[in-house]
Write a structure and sequence with these properties.
- With 71 residues, the chain is mainly α.
- Helix 1 packs antiparallel against helix 2.
Length: 71
């Protein structure tokens, strides 16, 4: 999961990378449910983005550049 995060964070932004990593990690478990994990991943990614980017002011993107969203 760390390697996936390191490879994706610059390209896809914090929100998309966090969701992908959480789904990737949850997929390894025996009780993987896509809908449940996707909801939890979206909530956790929103909290992480708010904390790291908005409150701490870290220079990260929320979303990838190709989606048309900036910082």
């Amino acid at each position: 999961t760390f390697v996936v995060f390191a490879q994706l964070i610059e390209r896809l932004g914090l929100v998309v990378t966090a969701v992908v990593c959480m789904l990737f990690a949850a997929w390894a478990g025996q009780e993987f449910r896509v809908r449940e994990q996707l909801i939890l991943a979206l909530i956790a990614a929103a909290v992480a983005a708010t904390g790291f980017i908005h409150f701490l002011g870290l220079p990260m993107r929320y979303f990838p550049e190709f989606l048309g969203f900036g910082y």
